[in-house]
Amino acid sequence: KEVRDVLAYLRVLANPEDTVPLRRILNVPKRGIGDRAEAMIDALSMREKISFPQALRRVDEAYGMAARSSNAVKRFNTLMEELRTIVESGAGPAVVLEAVLERTGYLAELQASTDP
Q1: 7-52: per-residue pLDDT in tens?
Q2: Which residues lie closer than 8 Å to 34 by C-beta, 6 or more apart?
Q3: Confidence bin at 83 (pLDDT 50/70/90)
Q4: 78: three-class secondary structure by DSSP
Q5: Comparing C-alpha atoms, which of 95, 93, 113 is closest to residue 105?
Q6: How far apart are alpha carbons 11 and 87 in whole angstroms?
Q7: What are the structural domains, with CATH classification, of the chain?
Q8: Which Pfam family, giving just one, matches this sequence (predicted)?
Q9: pTM for the full model?
Q10: Which terminus of the chain has fewer Cβ atoms in its 10 Å neighbourhood, N or C?
C-alpha cells in the first residue's frame, strides 16, 4: 500500500492531469478531504465539463462544500504546487521522493504507525 501511495504521488507530479492516482492521494495521509468533498469536486468537473484535476484547482466553485474541506483542498493544491516546483527545478529522484515523504506528512504517519 505504501509503495503504491508514493508512486501515485510521483505519477501526479509527472502528469498533473492523471485522475486515478490523484484520487488515490487526495486524502492520503488523512487531511480532511472526505468522500463528500471528492463527490462535490467531481460534480463541479461534470457541470463545468472540465477534468477532475482542473476542478480540484477551482474548489471555490464547488457548491455547498464545507469550509474545512475547501481549505483542506486548497492546502493540498499548494502542497502539490510546491512539490512540482521541486521537480521542475531539476532535482533528482531521491530528492523528489524525500520531499514527497516529508512534506506530505506520509513519513511521519508511517513512523507513528504501530502496523509492522
Answers
A1: 999 999 999 999 999 999 998 899 899 999 999 999 999 999 999 9
A2: 27, 69
A3: very high
A4: helix
A5: 113
A6: 12
A7: 2-112 (1.10.486.10)
A8: UvrD_C
A9: 0.88
A10: C
